[in-house]
Amino acid sequence: xxxxxLDTARHIGKTIFHLPQEYRPEFExxxxxxxxxxxDILRARDTxxxxxxxxxxxxxxxxxNELEIEGQPLRVEILAVCASQWDIIxxxxxxxxxxxxxxYRVLRPDIVCEGVLSGYNDCITTTGLxxxxxxxxxxxHVLSFPSxxxxxxxxxxxxxxxxxxxxxxxxxxxELLSLFEAQQLKLNCLDRDSVHFD
Length: 198
Description:
By secondary structure, the protein is an alpha+beta fold. It has one domain. It has 4 helices and 9 strands. Strands 1, 2, 3, 4, 5, 6, 7, 8 and 9 form a 9-stranded mixed β-sheet that branches. A hairpin with a 4-residue loop joins strand 8 (143-144) and strand 9 (149-158). The protein is globular and about 50 Å long. It starts with a helix and ends in a 15-residue tail after the last helix.
């Protein structure tokens, strides 16, 4: 890893995930088909609680996200928390990053990435990811480097009907999040039922 990636990994582990010094997180590398671009995913099992795993991308911030802060490029990395039996969420996070790299989309709060978790397991009902401001993590302040800064997004797995709810432009991502809260859905489960819209 480059120095900035190492610093980003340390920041995610120590400051955001609050991992003890002796904890050794896992890393998995995802590459595009031509293997010229890659994104690393830090994975911390049984964090924040037993049976859950936290994920943090390292390398999405190499791609321009068309934002600035104080005259400096503002890049992003993506965080997630998921039940530990679902390891494939790292694939979805990396897919979002490669969509940014290709110019297909920018990554901002309330952006929906459809289908990035599809095709891995027939039991998965939440095949899309909703990007939002982090609410499951503390200390997600901007991380500054000499030539750019990094802000953080949280990826929430959502069903196709929930994707369509937000993408219809008749409803907002915040409305969907309010429904999640009201119905107390387990957002860390990839095989959950869709929210009720009635």
